[in-house]
Model the fold of this input.
Amino acid sequence: MFKVSRKTRPSFASGFARSSAEAENPGLWKDCIFHWDASLGVTGDRAVDVSTYKNHSTSATGIDGSNWVMSPYGWVLQFDGVDDYFDFGVVDSVQLGLGNASLTALIKVQTAIDVYGSIAGNGSLGNAAKGHGLFVEKSTGLVYYQVRDKDVMSPAVNSNSVIADDGLWHMVTGVLDRAGEQALYVDGVKQTDVKDGTNFAAVNLDDSTKFTIGTRHSPTAIPYLFDYKGQIAKVIQHNRALTPSEIKQLYEDPHAITRQRSRIFAVTNRTSPWYYRAQESLICG
Done:
């Protein structure tokens, strides 16, 4: 079960960190190459990437104002499992290449209509594609993190328990560490199903597949398939393997990346009647 942080939620009105220099948790900005936070987005048909890479969606299908619903994390998107998704195009910065990766999503899952429901990623669930992605399986209700090298190799690691239709929010993070493991974390806890990440040590996973949220893209006759049903509050990708402590931090505070640091204002002239040292927290409680 996901915990709701008691801290004030970053917003356009109260402010939010736009870089590591402004962030309360600057380490989480390291190699963060994509960050869609629905509560900071536009409640229309565009997904705004608030990372420094600005990989905004290039198109949307089936998404308009009616998809947006309020949640404990602010505005989020409801996907119908039929034809609702964001397309970001072929994004060079999210390609895996020869590097490590972490893909995180804050989700409230409903049973998929198709065999699978693709949450986010590029290159998963398709024999003609390379990349990674998070998805839910209809028959089991489990969430998976898959890394794929076309039809050569496509290991997927799954959650310990059923997530679909449990009525709860969950933070899921898939991690590819090519010197270690391919693993999945649910609500900050590493799941027992792991794979050998060293199998991908020398595999270049760059591809021409598009990065999507709510469906999967593949260069096939049916390019968009396996639409996701449920709510999504955010999707984050790092081009490195997050540490267990960082994953737990994101679980405990889903807005940890965009939370602004406190600022200290000081007048150091002790002879001045205006001498003070005070800390003003811009958005933190």
User: Anything to note?
Assistant: The helical segments are 244-252. The longest strand covers residues 229-238. Residues 20-280 form a domain with the Jelly Rolls fold (CATH 2.60.120.200). The chain has one domain: 20-280.
